[in-house]
């Protein structure tokens, strides 16, 4: 009974533009104790707190969550059990091993397990892409660690501009649901998390009962428009219009690629209405927008290529679904990703030997 | 008989790194009167001549060809008949109309026709790509203008570094042949031009009896590797190595694209030995090289996209040959070309109306 009356505890890992607003939303709702792992801004935030300019919450100065940790290891040695571990870092399985999601959550999952093996640890992945839960399940025995995995699909226009400074321009819309729709415990956890996260009149948070469908649906845009804009280093609307008769990008790259996503999803039993393609295409016609892959590439940051394009193609290969458009986009993007890896020193090209060596392999 | 003893007259149009060495080769051979159209460097070249650092000819100071004209119009009003009109500008049919090859040669073709309608005007296109002669034949009646069209396929590493300054690093290798192999007059002209151009021990120039084959063969590389390097803004070797298992660029983009070129060529009766693919792939493995499309894109210059990729795809469509790899590369490259057009003010994107208007249409 004592446990029931205690507020649940949340740990947000990833203090970028998305993570900070996510943390603030939980904090502001007032139903949980919220801690944040702040790597690079730790000194600044412990001294001055955050300064936030938010379309959802207005102007906030010197704000600190209940807890601030420099690393997830520090959180794991704090003696706290974290009911919800909310991951808002980018998902780059082909990046440095220390940045893999299973490595990021491991200290807290282990410390939770040691503190109370009977209590549920609920991991909420607020991340793009497909099959992101599978990597976790490969590294943790879900039953023995008493893990629940939730999907968070978020639309938010939030950016960190310098230390401790976040500007949010788009309303936070979050869909939360169990990766495994048959898992009733997970469904309960999702409902609880929605309550913890909800700030009526400010953000929009809802239960997503069909996570598979919503993630495949979002790939219509992300797996096709995202790489095109990165390859062209151009917003999606210009990519649409700078084409043969202003139609070839749509008719010869995007729709073929989207139909491939529909076919791959169908091979997994997920039915996507082709009208959804028009929704996304209309969006690119109306709104001047540079997707995240394009922005990451321009900033020289690794892109979420594997979870957005690589994983759907693995499904395509497994199920024998042809995906020529996505395949070429993927392999072109792999070259771009390699270029970023080289610039970050993760991949070396020896101009004498004319070959690469990688720190990642 | 007087006409026979007079030296033939050549006019080279295009005074970039390639055009200047081409002009010097003709000049140095001493068998023709050679003039050059020098647009941007005209003042400098008439005053100081060219300064050339050439692997074929050594160091040359204050050199001038027999004639220097500021424009092809000026050449056309000089009273000279030009037996050979050698075009070394890039072939960009989707660029400004004034830069189309038929517009560039028109003044001289017309003045030649007026000076002596019975004498042959031989146009030598030292340019990349496919079907570049067709555009000319659409704009001039070959018979009434007494035109002969020759193909020049050149390998040369020559660059203009500032006004009147040219550095040539790779030996000039030129293959010259008639676009129409059945045209005996053209074959004769090609043989004559080879003699005019040959500098034994310096350059290598040879008759190309099968121009169609050599142009399709060169597309194996240019239509596939060229666009990939432009999209990645990376040399070809890194594009090869920055891939899944260091093989996916080769196996999932380049070889499929090359097989499509082989199939399209076959539909035109041109047989390309698949071993030629290995020749080009080995080249990318051995030599660190950035193809012209990549360099043009990086410099913000229009690329030879239509003659290298657009024209082969027109043939594919006409003959019903599937070319999915080349199609996607082409439409991605069209976006990049649009980006360059926008930066040059040839294409405008209105962010209010979310649409483009073009100065080129």
Automatic annotation (TrEMBL), chains A, B:
Domain Ketopantoate reductase N-terminal: from-to ranges: 11-180
Ketopantoate reductase C-terminal domain sequence ranges: 210-334
Pfam families per record: ApbA (PF02558), ApbA_C (PF08546)
InterPro entries cross-referenced by the UniProt entry: 6-PGluconate_DH-like_C_sf (IPR008927), 6PGD_dom2 (IPR013328), KPA_reductase (IPR013752), KPR-Related (IPR051402), KPR_N (IPR013332)
GO CC annotation: cytoplasm
Transmembrane segments: none
Gene3D superfamilies according to UniProt: N-(1-d-carboxylethyl)-l-norvaline Dehydrogenase, domain 2, NAD(P)-binding Rossmann-like Domain
UniProt name for this protein: LANO_0E01860g1_1
Natural source organism: Lachancea nothofagi CBS 11611
Organism phylogeny: Eukaryota, Fungi, Dikarya, Ascomycota, Saccharomycotina
